UniProtKB/TrEMBL annotation:
Native organism taxonomy: Bacteria, Pseudomonadati, Pseudomonadota, Betaproteobacteria, Burkholderiales
Protein name: MaoC/PaaZ C-terminal domain-containing protein
Pfam families xrefs: MaoC_dehydratas
Organism whose genome encodes this protein: Massilia solisilvae
Location of the MaoC-like domain: 177-254
Length: 282
């Protein structure tokens, strides 16, 4: 088992790792409170960074704060595959994410990624959330942090009656984009997240969805790129709460207040993602 004092190589996030995740069994929650992992992530993959920037609307030489999530996500998956992690990974829902850059990562130096797990008390609905706190370090200094909130056990569903109306949003529309039918596979090729719900109609149906949906962090990255263009400056932090899925081949509209630090991504009249961001000081 991995302990806080051990540093092991961070495994790549790929189809093989996903296959292990699909068949991982649930275990006891008693040991999960002590679960903390430490991985050697090596150097930033600059070739992947260039593909990421080109696909999501960033400048070719950019280092977006959202790119750190690709490293953190690998650590999250490796941590959840630890025998001490008590939940099945298949079916877990990414409910929220917060990424903050303390110092810009030096692509020429290796990264060490530490992750700790916290199981939250059950919600009134019975839902159980798991929070993974990750830090990326270089030479002992924290460069970025990433907190991911996952729904590990779903609670009772709330039935809503009546006609659905478009949800009100604050701010003005600053961007819009249409999610291509192949966007899930394209983002998976960059991020390594080959969850079947993002790939094809048949694979999404096998996982219980009517149609494939785009990765939540794809929407956050597109929003980050658009916000940077709108503000004319780089973002050093962005948070996200995932409220509704974004099906492939759907339009996303991004809203933000010119004087504020909040954003909302709307899809089919529903808030898909909302959060806050921080602009790098001049």
């Amino acid at each position: 088992m991995t302990t806080p004092t051990q540093t092991t190589p961070l495994p790549p996030l790929n189809a093989l790792l996903l296959a292990r995740a699909l068949f991982k069994r649930a275990g006891s929650q008693r040991a999960a409170g002590a679960l903390r992992t430490r991985y050697d992530a090596g150097h930033l993959d600059t070739a992947r960074l260039q593909r990421y920037n080109a696909a999501l609307g960033f400048a070719a030489n950019a280092l977006p704060v959202t790119f750190y999530y690709l490293v953190a996500q690998r650590a999250h998956m490796a941590t959840m595959l630890d025998p001490r992690f008590p939940f099945r990974i298949a079916g877990m829902i990414h409910a929220g994410n917060d990424i903050t850059e303390q110092c810009r990562v030096d692509a020429g130096r290796p990264l060490v990624i530490t992750t700790s797990v916290a199981i939250q008390p059950p919600k009134p609905s019975g839902a159980i959330h798991v929070v993974l706190d990750t830090a990326g370090e270089q030479e002992g200094k924290t460069m970025f942090t990433c907190r991911s909130d996952y729904v590990a056990v779903r609670g009772a569903r709330v039935t809503r009656n009546g006609t659905r109306h478009e949800e009100p949003v604050h701010g003005t529309q600053i961007a819009s984009w249409t999610v291509d039918a192949s966007a899930g596979r394209a983002y998976a090729a960059i991020s390594g997240d080959w969850n079947p719900i993002h790939l094809w109609p048949w694979s999404a149906r096998l996982m219980g969805l009517r149609s494939p949906i785009i990765h939540g962090m794809h929407t956050v990255a597109r929003a980050c790129a658009a916000l940077e263009q709108d503000r004319g400056a780089r973002l050093t932090a962005i948070s996200a709460r995932f409220r509704a899925p974004v099906p492939l081949q759907s339009e996303v509209r991004l809203f933000a207040n010119p004087a504020g630090s909040a954003y909302t991504a709307l899809c089919a009249g529903r808030v898909a993602v909302e959060g806050a961001f921080t602009v790098q000081p001049p």
